[in-house]
Amino acid sequence: MNNPSDNNRHASVDSHALGRRWTKQEDSLFNRVFDSTATENEKVRVRFKKRRWTKQEDELLCLCYALHRNEWSVIAEYMQGRSPRSCRERWAIITVNWSQEEIEKLEKNVEKYGENWKQVAKDLPGKTYRQVKAAKQKIE
Hints:
Blueprint: H1 11-18, H2 24-37, H3 40-47, H4 55-68, H5 72-78, H6 84-94, H7 100-113, H8 117-122, H9 129-139
């Protein structure tokens, strides 16, 4: 199955380069040159540009997970611009359950350590710093 992000893998590049959307001819030329000269790492960096997850992406991720469970490479095909690893990590963040005691400890640690998420997470066994950061953002 083709990755939906392949057709749009450099959509964020075009507006920065020209200040406008590329024409189909410019896009085709870019794809030919890029595909023939770029290393695999360069191709991956363009295809998976970092950006915040949206609520719609979270909802789509939940739907895809319900259909495909732990098949992260299949799930990522539906998530434009997201890698299998990114999908797996996001899933771990949005599905973690917090007890009231953990939430209180989280808030206490944030008061003590600020937004040093790795330090905050040290006192919360089983929680990663990304889960801690996401939980704090949900609480606010």
